[in-house]
Amino acid sequence: MNITVVGIGYVGLANAVLLSQYNQVILLDIVKEKIDLINQKKSPISDDEIKRYLSNKPLNLFATLDKKLAYENADYVVIAAPTNYNVKDQCFDTFAIESVIDDAISINPAASIVIKSTVPIGYTEKIKKQFNKDDIFFSPEFLREGRALYDSLYPSRIIVGGEGEKAGAFADLLIQGAISKDVPVLIMNPTEAEAVKLFSNAYLAMRVSFFNELDSLAESYNLESKQIIEGVCLDPRIGMHYNNPSFGYGGYCLPKDTKQLLTNFNGVPGKLIKAIIESNSARKDFITASIIRKRPKTVGIYRLVMKAKSDNFRFSSINSVIKRLKKNNIEVVIYEPFIKEGSFNALCLISDLEEFKRISDIIVANRFSDELSDVREKVYTRDIYGKD
User: Fold this and answer.
1) Burial of 271 (0-12, 13-18, 19+ CB in 10 A)
2) How far apart are CA 310 and CA 338, in angstroms?
3) Can you give the residue ranges of every domain in the chain?
4) For 146-190, what is each residue's pLDDT tens digit?
5) 13: Cα separation from own chain's centroid
6) Which helix (H) or strand (E) holds 300?
7) Is 145 helix (H, G, I), strand (E, B) or coil?
8) Are residues 359 and 298 in contact, defined by beta-carbon separation less than 8 angstroms?
9) Which residues of the chain are modeled with pLDDT < 50?
10) Is 253 one of the annotated active-site residues of the chain?
11) C or N terminus of the chain, fewer CB within 10 Å?
């Protein structure tokens, strides 16, 4: 197959690498630096499997800025464009998706379109009517930042929302590239597939919030969170996974997807999704108050990234904690080796770790690292398991 993947983020790049093992794949993006790195067999994002596959595997993969070249021979156009949540409209901004569909159809009307971007419930059916095109499918992704290719090689499930042979054929392409072959495959209506994506992420956000609230109570009563969590999670219906306290859920997906799902609940009785969003905000308030009670003059923020092995810090929960600290006139300095400039949002960046440790009265770390072991008494973290 000739496949074009639009968008060099972790979703687009993971899918492109997966599919290019057995198909000719063209990656299309608007950022020349990303294009150049891909064509040099280098990854523009932090993902160990992607780096390894680009360097060592014989992939049929090429990146370009040229729309005509990308679309003209494509059997499938896979869209992995960002859909940020528009607070004013209380909905995902889907302009990028529609722009891609418009370009692809104008150049190659025979190509089937697969939307991998997260969209509102009912979007795919609406867009099929808008473009008068039946072979537009929605295929949700369930990938973790930093482990996106791994999750594609060992998928928990493959879902394609659409009808006809081309929907099933796309699912087969995903299985073809995966290492795991005994993968549950669900072909369903696109609207139900859209709901699967949003409810899956809402459940993950709920689980994060649950263990964070447990941890807030434990810290308030001077209890050992780990003992409580392990006692709770040994129930096999709950499970010993995804249970590590944090400063709140962050990243690109969970915050916006929970807000979008809440919007879809407009007019439908329900309290849980709103409570999840409010709980996440309350957790950040609690973390901030816990830090302030220690009366630090200078708070050192150890890493801005959302989690270990990620290079994304735009939507990490620690940013919200920083804003709350600044509102309380607390001096904040940051150690983040991914940022090369001397400041971040007008805050001082300390590039030397030892200097950072020295000047910080408290070191705030969403996830603990061994390189902080020598100043463990200074570190404020709720991290128990060093994961998730």
Assistant:
1) exposed
2) 10
3) 2-188, 198-380
4) 899 999 999 999 999 998 899 999 999 999 999 998 999 999 999
5) 13
6) strand 298-302
7) coil
8) yes
9) none
10) yes
11) N
Instruction: Measure Cα distances from 254 to 97, 203, 249 in Å.
Output: 20, 9, 7
Residue 133 falls in which region: left (phi positive, over 0), alpha (psi -120 to 50) or beta: beta
Task: Return the CATH fold of 2-188.
Answer: Rossmann fold (3.40.50)
Helix (H, G, I), strand (E, B) or coil at 238: coil
Contacts of 228 (CB under 8 A, 6+ apart): 214, 218
Q: CA quadruple 334, 339, 344, 349: dihedral positive or negative?
A: positive
Distances (CA, A) of 3 to 23, 32, 149, 162: 7, 20, 17, 18
- Per residue in 330-361, pLDDT tens? 999 999 988 877 777 788 999 999 999 999 99
Cα separation of the two ends of the chain? 36
Catalytic residue among 91, 233, 253, 348: 253
2-188 and 198-380 agree in CATH topology: yes
Of residues 4, 7, 17, 9, the one with CA closest to residue 153: 17
- Polymer length in residues for the chain: 388
According to the model, what pLDDT value does residue 309 have?
Answer: 57
CB atoms inside a 10 Å sphere around CB 150: 17
Q: Hey, CA dihedral for 276, 281, 282, 286, is it positive or negative?
A: positive
Q: Tell me the C-alpha distance between 297 and 34, whole Å.
A: 41
Residue type, 245: P
- Angle between helix axes 225-233 and 190-220 (nearest 10 degrees) is 140
Q: What is the pLDDT of residue 306?
A: 65
Can you name the CATH fold of 198-380?
A: Rossmann fold (3.40.50)
Structure tokens at 68: 């005509």
Tokens of 147: 């482990």
Q: Give the bridge partners for 173, in sequence order.
A: none
